[in-house]
Design a protein that fits this description.
Elements (H helix, E strand, L loop, with lengths): L1 E6 L11 E11 L5 H7 L1 E6 L2 E6 L3 E6 L3 E7 L3 E11 L1 E7 L7 E12 L6 E10 L2 H11 L2
Antiparallel strand pairs: 1-10, 2-9, 3-4, 3-6, 5-8, 6-7, 7-10, 8-9
Length: about 150
């Protein structure tokens, strides 16, 4: 788990309607022998309010969140990459594609997120989790992220 802060000293004039846009891009490489099986095991997960859900990445797709979303996660078979907004994302649009098999890439993902910025705020607290996809390890963290 990596805690970090987006600093916005002197940048308030750049915000539109007290929001900042955040772009998060990932590329999930093939690590197992069979690319098609790995794609079947890979999910996009999210917590939207109190609703946890997931979508199989399949051959590509997108999800739009018009209301706040707590966190978004790309979950290949063994490791998870999760972006957490401590004060929730105002909205988000997540897109993913699965490139040609010859590239040995499970998926390429893009998340366009909006974060609300209070007037005169200079920091936006965030977290990034990258680690094992292990229920016993993740359960206490997911409970914490859901608050």
């Amino acid at each position: 788990m990596v805690d970090f802060v987006i600093g916005a000293n002197g940048a308030n004039q750049l915000f539109t309607n007290n929001t900042i846009n955040l772009l998060w891009q990932t590329e999930i490489p093939q690590v197992e022998k069979t690319l098609s099986y790995e794609r079947q095991q890979t999910n996009f997960c999210y917590l939207n309010g109190s609703k946890y859900d997931f979508v199989r990445l399949g051959s590509g797709g997108n999800e739009k969140f018009e209301k706040g979303v707590n966190w978004i996660s790309f979950n290949p078979q063994f490791f998870v990459s999760t972006l957490i907004a401590k004060n929730k994302f105002q909205s988000a649009e997540v897109n993913w594609v699965t490139p040609a098999d010859s590239l040995r890439i499970i998926a390429q993902t893009t998340a366009n997120c909006k974060l609300t910025v209070a007037a005169n705020t200079t920091t936006i607290p965030m977290q990034l989790y990258y680690g094992p996809n292990d229920y016993k390890l993740l359960k206490p963290m997911v409970t914490k992220w859901n608050k």
